[in-house]
Structure prediction request, 325 residues.
Amino acid sequence: MTEDSSSAHARADNASSKVFQGDVLPLQEANVRVVDSTYPLTDAAVEVAEAEGKELILAITDAEEHVVVLSQTCDLRRSSDRLPNFQVAPVLAVDEKLYGEIYRGHRPGYASLPWFQPFHVADLSKITTLERSLLVDVEVAGTIQSDLDRAIFAEAIARHFARVALPDAFTPLLYPLLDRMKKKAGKQSNEGSCLGRIASIRLEGTPNFSSASPRLTVIFVLESGDFPDYEGVDELDMNLVDTLVESKAVDRAAAMALDTENVKLCHEGWLACAALWTQESVLLAAAADDVDSLDYEVVSGRQFSFERSRNAPEVDLTYLTTRGD
Prediction:
């Protein structure tokens, strides 16, 4: 390593020591995409192709003024001669409704940034690799203030890359649930409040997704405070749950679900809500050739084991990612 190179690494290492995962940086020039000018896909790519000509591989800079650091903090502390790069994503402003969906984890292509400006998110579809030399003399515009926000941000990045690819036959079964969530989530209603309290939606296949005609279970995972433990499961009034479902009394069921002081009523309300949300999916599954049945379950995060989570991956309800056979 030459003296100049050693000095450059030292500067980069010093700058990196002050940067953390989740930091927002004013690096517009880092919002770069590589495009083929012969087959441009976006307006920005078309504009550059018209100016530069065809049959070129070009780097174009997008308009977003800030990026957020995705790389883990521990990697930023490693010597830049061993790990000279880091990853960022552009920061976008979105409307309040979309931000609410992203904040609740229902839009895995994005990550909310509550420590930055209101209604700003990271666009995880446009991740860029930069050299750590770009961190020299950069002032951080926003940094995570709490351990909870730090954990949620790291989970959002992981979720983006760990989204389940469902077999094609399963995808149409979940469309009614997706449509309902799009229409009702964020609304000023009991049902909207319940949908906002769902921490995660999982899909479990028994014995597994690859088996012939598996039994599917949609699992609604809630925070423990929203679904308190209840030892008298056998005492739940399933006749009341059935009546709520038959009468489509979702507002009443949701009001019951929100009543965490009355734990029995809370459980009955959540069961009725889950039954109503998956009602059309259950009917579609009954008529499908590739699925035995579809059911639902409501659990708290405390009840949902790590082992089970590995076999019941989180469902990306935004796009319902599919894979071929």
